Amino acid sequence: MKIAVSSTGESLKSKVAEVFGRCPFFIIAEIEYNKIARKEVIKNAVANQIGGAGIAAAQAIAEKNVRAVITGNVGPRALDVLKQFNIEIYYGNGKVEKVLQKFMEKKLKKIENR
After folding, report:
1. Which structural domain range is residue 96 located in?
2. Which of these, 39, 51, 72, 93, has the minimum number of CB atoms within 10 Å of its CB?
3. Between the CA of residue 5 and those of 42, 50, 92, what are the distances in Å?
4. Digit-coded pLDDT (tens) for 88-102
5. Distance (Å, rounded) from C-alpha 62 to C-alpha 85?
6. CATH of residue 95
7. Strand order across the 88-91 sheet
8. Tell me, what's the pLDDT at 113?
9. Total structural domains in the chain?
């Protein structure tokens, strides 16, 4: 299962970014047998876009076949796009590696609606 985490940096030790569409990076972790099997770092090319950054970021993440997103906050339009692709959205804060561990332990709160 692939999980995208909005991140302030390129490392698993980076913090979860507070805003999904404007985060500097996405860390995509592939989880197998409750362990991180692979990771990919993607620079968020639309972070400084004037409008629609959340929608464009959600579309870019969906193209990576991600099944879940962990972020500090997601705007309503990005939330709609993620839901259209059946991507689950979870709230997370702190270090990326810690929120991924909490995800694997099923201890993260799901973001349902605004």
Report:
1. 2-110
2. 51
3. 10, 22, 9
4. 999 999 999 999 999
5. 7
6. 3.30.420.130
7. 35-43, 25-32, 2-7, 68-71, 88-91, 109-110
8. 60
9. 1
